[in-house]
Amino acid sequence: MTRTFLRRSLFIAAGTGLLLYIWFAWCLAHEPQPAPRTIDLLILGRPQLTNGAMLVSVVLSNGTSRSLNVVDDTAGNPFLGLVTTNYFAGYLVPDRDVSGPCANMMRINLAAGASLTNTVWITNPPPRFRLRTMVRDMHAEFSWGIRQIPRSLAVRAGLLRQRQFLGSPASPTSPTSPWIESGVYPQ
Length: 187
Prior knowledge:
The protein is elongated and about 100 Å long. It has a single domain (39-181), classed as Immunoglobulin-like, CATH 2.60.40. The termini are far apart. 25% of the residues lie in helices and 27% in strands. It is built from two helices and 13 strands. It is α+β, with helices and mostly antiparallel strands. The strands form four sheets. Strands 1, 2, 3 and 10 form a four-stranded antiparallel β-sheet that branches. A four-stranded antiparallel β-sheet has the order 8-5-11-13, with no helix packed on it.
């Protein structure tokens, strides 16, 4: 065998090995990822209607891997807002508070994988509505704030332009229940 034949076969084998390595790395990087776990606000059973008031039991479940802070009202229960079909800048806007006024005393923490059950009375419910609460990820808010310190210093020094944005990636999330229609359920 000649030297050129050995070099050529070695070159082909190395090229084939490199292509197989690239293909394998690409397959690992592009494998299907599981859906991220979320925070859910669900209705337990059917809401009960009695004399213009509705009794609704809700479950807030934490499917994330972190402990979350549930915004609470002045009575210490999870804060719930009633949302109808009002839109403002593409967001559902809560019409009124179902529980008491929002206080956020940071007393309700929901561990990873845990759930919280609450029952609320809604007086004079609209024909169709949703319930919404607010949940904060304190760890994400803290780390996002720490990362923004150098940027804010650079903006003050005039090295960077200040960007206008609506919220941070660590802003509170608002889990929303499915639609509740008061006329559908038997009284």
